[in-house]
Specification:
Belongs to the CbbQ/NirQ/NorQ/GpvN family. There is one protein chain. The protein is of the alpha/beta class. It has 2 domains: 216 residues, P-loop containing nucleotide triphosphate hydrolases (Rossmann fold), CATH 3.40.50.300; 89 residues. The protein contains 12 helices and 11 strands. Strands 4-7-10-3-11 form a 5-stranded parallel β-sheet. It is globular and about 70 Å long. The protein starts with 16 loop residues before the first strand and ends in a 12-residue tail after the last helix. About 3% of the residues have low confidence.
Length: 328
C-alpha cells in the first residue's frame, strides 16, 4: 500500500477510487444513486471519523454532490446544528483532506491571499512572497470549508468571490500570476443566515451578502437540529452510562432552549455538543443538576435562568436550585 501523503506533498494526490452513494452512505438510499470520487489513503488533513455521528440524509446528499460534481455548496442553519462537522464527517468517509477557515473579524485579506515576507537566503536578506490559505488550498485536493461565511468582512468576501466563478481561477495581481484550481479542489461554506444579515436579532456580526455572492453558490442546503431519537443515539454512544429516560429528558430540555432561543427568550441554546458535555459532567460529578449548571446554566444571562429552571422542572419534575446573586 502506498504511504499516506502529508499536507506538504498533496499537490500530486488524486482521488484513486469511486464509491457509490448507496454503498458508502446508506443514509441516502432514498435518493438516486451516483458515484463519488474518493481516496484509498488518508493524509494528515483528513478529519478524524466519528462513528457516533448521525448524518442528515438531505444535507449529506448536497455535500456529496459538491464532491462528485464540483458544485459550490453552502450549508445554512442555526448554530449548534453541526454544519461544519457534517461536512468534515462526509469528507472523512471519502478520505478527502479538509481545511477549515473561520471568517471572523480577525482574518484579513493578507491571511487569505498571502504577503511578502523577509527571509535570509545564502546569507542575504531577501523578500519572498508567502502564499496565503486560499492559493495554497487551490493547488491541492482540499475541501475548503469557509466557516461563518455570513460574518466575513467585505474586502475578504470579494477575494473569495473570485474562486466562486465557474472555472475558479485566482489572479494574484502582486505576483502577475493566475492560479488554476487542482482538479480535486472543492469549496463549501456554512452560515447562520442566507445572506440577509442580522434581520431577526439572533446573529450579531453577520453581514448582508450581495446577490452576486449568493448567486455563485450552486447548492444551498438547510441543516436543522437532529430528530430526538437520532440525537439520543449520539448522546448514548458518547455517554452509555445514561439511561434512556435520562437522555430523553435531557434532549427534551435542549429542545425547549432551542425554541426559547428562536423566540428571542434566551440568548443561548443547547447544542448536541452541550448535551454531550452535560452527560460527561454527570459522569464526573454524579449529580445531574450540578452537571447541567456547569455545562449550560452558568452560560445564561441572570434574567434568563428562571426560565431555564422552568424548562428543567418541566422535563425532570424537580426544582433546579438557583444561586441567588448578591446585590450591592
Amino acid at each position: 500500500m502506498a504511504e499516506s501523503p502529508s499536507s506538504s506533498d498533496l499537490s500530486c494526490f488524486q482521488p484513486d477510487q469511486m464509491v457509490t452513494l448507496h454503498s458508502a452512505f446508506p443514509e441516502c438510499k432514498g435518493f438516486a444513486d451516483f458515484s463519488i470520487p474518493s481516496f484509498s489513503n488518508a493524509s494528515d488533513l483528513v478529519p478524524e471519523s466519528d462513528p457516533a455521528y448521525q448524518l442528515n440524509p438531505e444535507a449529506s446528499l448536497s455535500i456529496l454532490a459538491g464532491f462528485a460534481y464540483n458544485r459550490r455548496v453552502m450549508l445554512q442553519g442555526m448554530h449548534g446544528t453541526g454544519k461544519s462537522t457534517h461536512i468534515e464527517q462526509v469528507a472523512a468517509r471519502l478520505n478527502w483532506p479538509c481545511l477549515r477557515i473561520n471568517l471572523d473579524g480577525q482574518i484579513t485579506r493578507m491571511d487569505l491571499i498571502g504577503k511578502d515576507m523577509i527571509a535570509i537566503e545564502d546569507g542575504k536578506q531577501i523578500t519572498r512572497f508567502q502564499e496565503g490559505l486560499i492559493p495554497w488550498s487551490l493547488q491541492r485536493p482540499i475541501a475548503l470549508i469557509l466557516d461563518e461565511y455570513d460574518a466575513g468582512q467585505p474586502d475578504v468576501m470579494f477575494v473569495i468571490q473570485r474562486m466562486l466563478e465557474r472555472e475558479g481561477r485566482l489572479t494574484l495581481l502582486d505576483q502577475n500570476r493566475v492560479i488554476k484550481p487542482h482538479s480535486a479542489f472543492r469549496i463549501f461554506a456554512t452560515s447562520n443566515t442566507v445572506g440577509l444579515g442580522n434581520w431577526n436579532g439572533l446573529y450579531q456580526g453577520t453581514q448582508l451578502l450581495n446577490h452576486g455572492q449568493m448567486d455563485r453558490w450552486d447548492i444551498v442546503a438547510a441543516l436543522d437540529y437532529l430528530e430526538p431519537i437520532e440525537e439520543q443515539k449520539i448522546l448514548l454512544a458518547k455517554v452509555p452510562e445514561l439511561s434512556s429516560e435520562q437522555s430523553g429528558q435531557m434532549i427534551a430540555l435542549a429542545n425547549l432552549t432551542r425554541k426559547g432561543f428562536e423566540a428571542g427568550d434566551l440568548s443561548t441554546l443547547m447544542s448536541t455538543r452541550t448535551l454531550i458535555t452535560w452527560g460527561e459532567n454527570w459522569r464526573i460529578f454524579k449529580d445531574l443538576q450540578l452537571a447541567f449548571t456547569l455545562a449550560f446554566l452558568n452560560k445564561c444571562e441572570t434574567e434568563e435562568k428562571a426560565l431555564v429552571a422552568e424548562y428543567f422542572q418541566r422535563c425532570f419534575s424537580s426544582e433546579l436550585y438557583l444561586k441567588q446573586s448578591s446585590t450591592s
